[in-house]
Each structure stands twice: as structure tokens, then as C-alpha cells.
Records
---
Amino acid sequence: MPHKKAQSWFDQHPNRLDRKSQEEAIDLVSFSFNGNPVVGRKGESIAASLIAAGIRNFRQDRVGENRGIYCGMGTCFECLVHIDGSPSQRACLTPVEKDMDIRTQTYAPSVGPRNDQMRPNFHPTVSPPRRTALLIIGAGPGGLASAISAARSGVNVTVVDERTMPGGQYFKQPAAASESSDKSAFDQQSLQGRALIETARNLGVEILGKTTVWNAVENSDGFDLHVS
Ligand code: FES
């Protein structure tokens, strides 16, 4: 009987764009979906890992139909899943982590665990107030360009975004794992975004990722922010 050649990790994940060898598939992250093992790459979203593994049905709506990723940018809420028992988490915005227990969400899920029982990422701890002269919500092209203009005029700027990385949908940055393994992941558009992000940072713009603003109180010299 002919010996069957072992499949590489990328052979098992045909939806991946990069075709690097298994040896170069660094920073792999093992987690489970409905109890079945799945492997993603560090820095990418849960949705990206699931799609790459051929899993498209993330939740069920109230008539039992399957739903999955739609906008891919955190606005449609079609990609909701349970993560470690916490319901209604957006798979497209949540970075995949080792040993996560991801499960399909059905309509009207239970409330889930108490805050202090959640994985730290899902425990919204509001930090002490921080002050800024100009607060920009959203680190997409518009937010970054505005921040750069203001910073060049000497204004102290803070840009807040709920995504892990700045760039928004238009200048979306590849997963961190691609930095070291696959330079082709940086197409012209993401390179333009990277340049914009670097310009903002070099001008001293503070960019807060994975951050939600709960309260912004205006005062005489700017805003006091309460973020988590
Ligand atoms: S796919 Fe739209 S919020 Fe995740």
C-alpha cells in the first residue's frame, strides 16, 4: 500500500492565503470550537481562524438558521459566539487565544458568568481617568488623518479604537504573526495604513487599541476619559 504523504498545516487550511511551509507556521494557537480542536495563528481574530479552518456557521438566529461573519468589522453582530462561557462576543473583533473554548451561540443566550469569572479580556475594568486635549474615536483613515493634523498643530491627541490594531477597515493591518513570517501579507493598502499609523505615533499621538470609552467629561483643558 503506497505511503500517504502527511498533510502540512497549510494543506489542512486551504483558505489561508499564505502557503508557507509548516516549519514556518510560527505562533500557532490551539483552541476549540464546539469541543473540536482548531488551530489559528497568534494575532488574528477568532473569525479569521474559524474561516481558515472551514467553519462558517458561528451562531443561530431565532428561527434556527445559521449565521456567520458578514461585515468583518464589528458592526453587524452576526458573528456572535460564546467564549469561555461569555456570550455575545464578536468573533471578528476578538483575537484568538490559546485554549479558548468557543461555542456556537443560539438565539437569546443566557447572561453568562459574573464579571470576575470571565477571562480577563472580557472583564471590563474601567481604568482611572486619563486626560487629553482632543479625543478621537476610531483609528481608521479619518481618525488617524485628523489626529496627525491636530498633532502637527501642537495639540495633545488620544485616538481610541475597539479593534486590536489601528487602521480601521480600510487600512486594516495584518495579524501580528504575519510580521515575522509573511511579508506578502502587507499589500499596498495596508502599507499605506502602516505609514499613517507610524506618522501619527511619531508625532506623539496616543493610540489606544482594544479600548472602549465609557465616559468622557469635558473640562477647561480637554477631556477626562474613563476607558476599559
Ligand atoms: S462580522 Fe459583523 S460584527 Fe463581526
---
Amino acid sequence: MYRKKGGIFPTLLRYAPLTLTTLAALVPKELEAEIEIVDEGVCVLDENIEADLIGISAITGTAVRAYALANHFRKRGATVVLGGVHPTLMPQEAMHHADAVITGLAYETWPQLLRDFKNGELKKLYTQPENINLSNLPIPRRDLLKRFSYISYGAVQATFGCPYKCDFCAVTATSKNYLHRPITDVINEIEALGSHLIIFVDPSPIEDKKYIKELWRAMIPLKKIWSGLATVKIADDEELMDLAVKSGCKGLLIGFETVSNEGTQIINKSFNNVSNYKEIVKKLHDRGITINGTFMFGMDHDDKDSFKRTVDFVNEVKIDLPRYSIYTPFPGTPLFKRLEKEGRILTKNWTLYDAQHVVYKPLKMTSEELREGQLWAWKQTYSIKSIIHRILGSGVPPYVPLITNIGYRYYAKKLKDFPISKMEEIQFKWNPNHDSDEYILKEEIA
Ligand code: SF4
């Protein structure tokens, strides 16, 4: 589940989700199940849908709606399974709202759960062992999606997890191992896709250099174009950057996080050396790679001047597509544990854990100043003047950055209206303990 009815962005700016199509592909053939995928990011869920078993995958920001839907469907007689990032972080909480909870990647446990369900032997909790074999995974059932609902159909994942331990990151809180699929499997999947544009969703793909260089070499003959994520470490290796370009890389999302080295220490991401940022951006721009640079506000070193310092930096180095989020303590992360110990968690309303709302007490400013500062940074960065300055000055062909900047200008304008108008139905019946059946769809309350 992502935001109901598409969140801020119009649905046409989304790429096809990989989780739901992968789960569909893992349904054992012998069960002869009829499968329907409902992606709330792009369509409206029929709350009267009839099903024997409903699986809901939720991130923290959608957990409360997932619980409300789970309660709704269970009352109607369906068996409900909850999985995804939030149930993996908080399985005990999720179990209050589901017949079964599945944690981790679910490649082996989801088929097992379905067989148990068929045999009337459903267990309450299924935990995927970490040492999972990622060979010969079934091809995701993209045929079950509405093809023209998405900007791209070609999401692919080659590596899983991350070897680093940034304190705010849910990736390492949900998976301890850094794993990769066999290269031939990934290449076969890309070849079968029928999409020229590939989106790699790997959170941290370049940490095993030998593997990723081999994968990118194998991609060269496919003549695809792709975008994905990387750490700043990509710029340490000229050969790696050159292979990225040869394999079709046009854009990278890079987590710069902060323009202060004190900040990178605080968040345990000290391999991000701020003094090198300018050179990193230049090396990638020189190769024609656009940069989607992400920054956070609200770390313990951040004060009221941090917003301007970050916006100035983004303009100076000409980041093609900057994004600003609030430093958010997702449950299960080291950051959450620290802030809870310090008595600084303000709410456990998971709906507000979307990296756009302040859910803890910042150290050097008020919560309101943090939220206002973040909105100000978005507004400044997506002013026409800033867009033109960054796009024309980067040296990268301006067409795609121009379109994406216009998209983010729209996002920046809508951001301040997001909380009330979009979250009404889930804040209506808020229960801070997460342990009862208080999550009710607004339609049912009425
Ligand atoms: S490098 Fe990225 S994926 Fe890895 S722990 Fe840090 S934020 Fe998470």
C-alpha cells in the first residue's frame, strides 16, 4: 500500500510496484488461485471485494489504513495477511489486526503460508530466514497490473539489503544480510520485460563492486536506459561510473542527507564526506547522469539556518532534482530507540511517519520551525529561477530534468495542504496503543 488515491503526485508519475507482482508470481500453481492485484497508489479499492484471502503490504505511513482495511475485511469473513516493511518492523502490533503476519522478503514463506491456508493450518507468524536463496525467482506477474496506469512498467531488483547502518534507515532494520540475485536471472528478467526504461529499486546496489560491475557489463548489449539508487561511493571508482553510463544509466538517486559533516556522523553515515559532494556531482554530470539528491532536515545538529545552507548548496552544485524530507524515526530503527529513550517521540500515529511530518522533538528548533523550514526549502528550490539555474548549469541534457522539475514544483506547491485533506479518514479514530480494533474506515464510522 502506498498513499490512498495516489498521495500528492498524480498517478501517472508512478512506476509499477514490484512487491505485489512478485507475491502474485509466488502463488503456487497447484492452488489454482484466482489472483487480483489492487494498487491503492493508482486505483480505488472496492471495499466490497469478495476474496478468501487478502494480503496487504504496508509501509509505516500506510500501516493505520492497512489495519483499518484488515479489520474491515476480517469482519466480512476474509482471512487477512499483513506483510511488508511495517509488519516486519512491528510484527506483534500487526498481529492484532491480521489472521497471519509475514515478515521479511517472503520468497519462501508466502507460498508456504498459502499452502497452510489451503490445508486449514494457517499460523499466526511467518518469518523468512535471512539466508535466502535468490536463484530462479519467478518473474513478477506484471501482466496483472493495468499497464497504462504507470510511467514505467520496468521496475527490477538485483540486490537486497545494505551493509551500512545509517541510524534512520528501515532497510537495515528489516534485513540484516546484503544479498544479490544471479546475474543471468536479472538479465533474463530485463530481456523479457519489453520495456526500454528500467528502474532499479535496489536500495544500495553498488556495495559489492565485483557483482555490480559484472551486472552492468552484462547489460551493455541490451541497450536499455535505466535509473536507480547509489551511494556517494560510486564516485570513488571511475570504472564503475563508466560502466554505469555504458549500461544505460541516465539518473541516480543519491542520499546526500545533509551538508554538514557533523550531521553525517550523527546519522552514522560518515562515508558521506560533504567536502567531496561538489566533485561527486561534477563527475556524474560530466558523464550525462542526472542526480536526484535527497536531503533531510531535523537532525540534532540542524538549526534554523540549515534550510538556507542546504538550498544554497543545492543551487551551487546544481543538483538536478533535489528532495527534502524530515529526519524520521521509523519504528525498529536505532534512531527510534534513541529518541524514545530520550523522551523525544511526540506521537506514534504511524500515518504521520511519512518523512513529511515532524513526529519527534527536534533539538535546536521547534517542530513548527522544522516543518515550516522544510516547506520553505521545497518552495525556494522549485521556484522558476532555481529550476532554470540548476538545469541549464548542470551540463546534462535538460529535457528530462525539466519535466521532472515541473513535477516536483507541483509537489512542492501541494505539500503544505497534504496532512488534513488526505489523512482525514485515518486520523478520525486514532488509537495510540495499536492493540485494539479501533481502526475503522471513515465510511463505516459514518
Ligand atoms: S546507505 Fe542507504 S540503504 Fe544503506 S543504511 Fe544508509 S540509507 Fe539505508
